[in-house]
Amino acid sequence: MAKQIVYGEQSRQAILRGVNQLAGYEPTRTVAEIEAEMEAQVAREMASMAPDIVRASTLKKQLVERSRKQPESVAMTIRGWLQENKR
């Protein structure tokens, strides 16, 4: 059986992928790709956790996001929680 010789961009990309795979090279990923991968990993981990841990993790994520947008509001909320614990 004769081998087919293929030219062009598609074949060049296939060869490049093979060489990179053999060399152990990991292509550069965008921030969005990395974040999506991290969130998928967190979702897998949270599926096996107890509900209380899931709530705490969700609350933490929401606090981090909100603290970037409204830092003063989050600071006042946390101060209020600390004052409740002292009573």
Report what the structure shows.
- By secondary structure, the chain is mainly alpha-helical.
- It has one domain (9-86).
- Helix content is 77%, strand content 0%.
- It has helices at residues 9-23, 31-47, 51-69, 71-86.
- Helix 3 (51-69) packs across helix 4 (71-86).
- The radius of gyration is 24 Å and the shape is elongated.
Question: What's the topology here?
Answer:
Elements: H1 9-23, H2 31-47, H3 51-69, H4 71-86
- State which percent range the strand residues make up: under 5%
How much helical structure, as a percent, in the residues? Answer: over 70%
Q: How far is it from the N-terminal to the C-terminal residue, by CA?
A: 84 Å
| Low-pLDDT stretches | none
Structural class: mainly alpha
Return Rg in Å.
24 Å
Concise structural overview:
The protein is mainly α and 87 residues long.
Question: Which terms summarize this structure?
Answer:
single chain; 87 residues; mainly alpha; 4 helices
